[in-house]
């Protein structure tokens, strides 16, 4: 199992969350094999968001990260900086 952590700066956390939960974003995650996901915001800075996605393989995670659809979706959701990314494998 692969865990992808993506930390984003967003324009508006509430707007990000609404878009993140809608059918278009959900379909994109499903298309690239996301098995589980969650979104978090930091306590002290509203527009600092952490997204966690689980995949069966590193190849799936990398395909998701390289997808033009993901880049377009991030713009639609109000992501304003390149994300900070970390990928982990289960022990």
In words, what does this structure look like?
The chain is α+β, with helices and mostly antiparallel strands and 91 residues long. The protein has one domain (2-89): Alpha-Beta Plaits (2-Layer Sandwich). 40% of the residues lie in helices and 31% in strands. The protein is built from four helices and four strands, in the order βααββααβ. It has helices spanning 13-21, 23-31, 58-66, 68-76, and strands at 2-9, 36-41, 48-55, 84-89. Strands 2-3-1-4 form a four-stranded antiparallel sheet.
Q: Topology of this protein?
A:
Layout: E1 2-9, H1 13-21, H2 23-31, E2 36-41, E3 48-55, H3 58-66, H4 68-76, E4 84-89
Antiparallel strand pairs: 1-3, 1-4, 2-3
Features:
single chain; 91 residues; alpha+beta; Alpha-Beta Plaits; 4 helices; 31% strand
Shape: globular
Over all CA atoms, what is the radius of gyration? 12 Å
What is the percentage of strand-forming residues? 25-35%
Q: Could you say what the CATH topology is called? A: Alpha-Beta Plaits
User: What count of helical segments does DSSP give?
Assistant: 4
Average residue-wise pLDDT:
96
- Tell me the name of the CATH class: Alpha Beta
- Estimated helix fraction: 25-40%
Coarse structural class:
alpha+beta
Widest sheet, order of strands? 2-3-1-4
Number of strands: 4
Distance between the termini: 9 Å
The number of domains: 1
User: Which stretches are poorly predicted, pLDDT < 50 over at least 5 residues?
Assistant: none
What pattern of helices and strands is seen along the backbone?
Answer: EHHEEHHE
Q: Biggest β-sheet, characterized?
A: 4 strands, antiparallel
CATH architecture label? 2-Layer Sandwich
């Amino acid at each position: 199992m692969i865990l992808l952590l993506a930390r984003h700066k967003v324009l508006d956390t509430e707007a990000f969350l609404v878009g993140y939960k809608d059918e278009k974003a959900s379909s994109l995650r499903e298309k690239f094999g996301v098995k589980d996901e969650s979104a978090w915001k930091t306590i002290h800075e509203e527009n600092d968001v952490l997204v966690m996605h689980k995949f069966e393989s590193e190849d799936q995670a990398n395909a998701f990260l390289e997808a033009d659809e993901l880049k377009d979706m991030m713009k639609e959701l109000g992501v304003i900086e390149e994300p900070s990314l970390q990928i982990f494998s289960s022990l």
